[in-house]
UniProtKB/TrEMBL annotation:
Pfam families hit by this protein: 7TM_GPCR_Srz (PF10325)
UniProt-recorded name of the protein: Uncharacterized protein
Annotated coiled-coil segments of the chain: none
Alphabetical keyword list: Membrane, Transmembrane, Transmembrane helix
PANTHER family, alphabetized: SERPENTINE RECEPTOR, CLASS T-RELATED, SERPENTINE RECEPTOR, CLASS Z-RELATED
Annotated TM spans: 27-46, 66-89, 96-114, 151-172, 178-201, 222-238
Domain of life: Eukaryota
C-alpha cells in the first residue's frame, strides 16, 4: 500500500518549488508567472464585461460564463493564499500558519479537480465549435440553457470527486495504480481528441487567408496557437513528472 500512496504524494512532492538546489532561473520564472497572472486578469475581466451582451446570443456563452466565474474564484483563492502567506511572514502567528497549511493542502485537491472538469468542458467546446463551423444548421440543437449547463457542471464535479474517493479507497486494496493509469489514459485521449477537432477548422480558415479581413485578423494563426500551445505546455510538464 505504501508504494501506491506515492501516487498521491508525487504531486505534492513534485510541487515543492523551492529547495536548497533550486536554480535561480526557476525562482525568477515563478515570480514572472505570478506577475503575469495577476496583471492579465483585470484585462480579461474588462474584455469579458465589454463582450458580455454580444456573447449572450452565442451558443458558447454558458461555457464562456463558466470559465469567467471559475477564473474569478481561482484568483480569489490565489489572493487569499497570498494574503495568508503575507500574514504568516509578518506576524509569525501559529493560527495563520495552520490556516496557510490548510489552504495550501486543499489546493492539491481543488486545483486538479477544477483542471480536470475544465478539460472536459474544453473538449465539449471543441466538439461544439467543430459542429457549429461545419454544420451551422445544428446550432439550435447545440445550444444549452443556463440550468442545463449548471447541471452538467455539477455532474462533472461530482464524478471527479467520486473518482478521488474511489482512488483513495483503492489505495487500501492495492488496486489504485490500475485506476490511475486508466484515468490518465482517458484524460490524454480526451486532450488529443479535442485537439484534433481544431485541425479541420484551421485548414478551412487557412483557405480564406487571401481575404482582406483574414489578412488583417489572421484567424488561422489564432486557431493554430489556441490549438497547440496548451497541449505543448501540458505534455512538457507531463514529461518532467513521474507517473508513480
Amino acid at each position: 500500500m505504501e508504494s501506491h500512496l506515492g501516487i498521491f504524494s508525487t504531486s505534492i512532492n513534485s510541487t515543492s518549488f523551492f529547495t536548497d538546489e533550486t536554480p535561480p532561473a526557476k525562482i525568477i520564472l515563478l515570480f514572472v508567472y505570478i506577475f503575469c497572472a495577476v496583471a492579465i486578469f483585470p484585462f480579461y475581466f474588462h474584455v469579458y464585461g465589454m463582450n458580455r451582451k454580444r456573447d449572450e446570443s452565442t451558443a458558447v456563452f454558458p461555457i464562456i460564463s463558466y470559465f469567467y466565474q471559475c477564473l474569478k474564484t481561482l484568483y480569489c483563492y490565489f489572493y487569499l493564499i497570498m494574503l495568508i502567506a503575507g500574514l504568516v511572514f509578518f506576524y509569525r502567528s501559529e493560527k495563520f500558519i495552520w490556516l496557510a497549511l490548510l489552504l495550501y493542502s486543499l489546493s492539491f485537491f481543488i486545483i486538479p479537480t477544477i483542471c480536470e472538469v475544465n478539460q472536459v468542458i474544453m473538449s465539449l467546446l471543441a466538439a461544439q465549435r467543430f459542429f457549429l463551423y461545419f454544420f451551422p444548421t445544428v446550432e439550435k440543437y447545440l445550444n444549452i440553457s443556463k440550468n442545463g449547463f449548471r447541471w452538467l457542471i455539477w455532474i462533472l464535479y461530482l464524478l471527479s470527486f467520486l473518482k478521488l474517493i474511489v482512488m483513495f479507497i483503492l489505495v487500501f486494496l492495492d488496486s489504485v495504480s490500475i485506476v490511475y493509469m486508466i484515468s490518465f489514459f482517458c484524460f490524454n485521449v480526451l486532450i488529443i481528441g479535442s485537439t484534433l477537432m481544431y485541425i479541420p477548422i484551421f485548414l478551412s480558415i487557412r483557405k480564406l487567408s487571401h481575404l482582406s479581413s483574414a489578412k488583417k485578423n489572421r484567424p488561422h494563426r489564432f486557431v493554430l496557437w489556441q490549438n497547440y500551445l496548451p497541449i505543448v505546455i501540458y505534455y512538457y510538464f507531463i514529461s518532467h513528472k513521474p507517473l508513480a
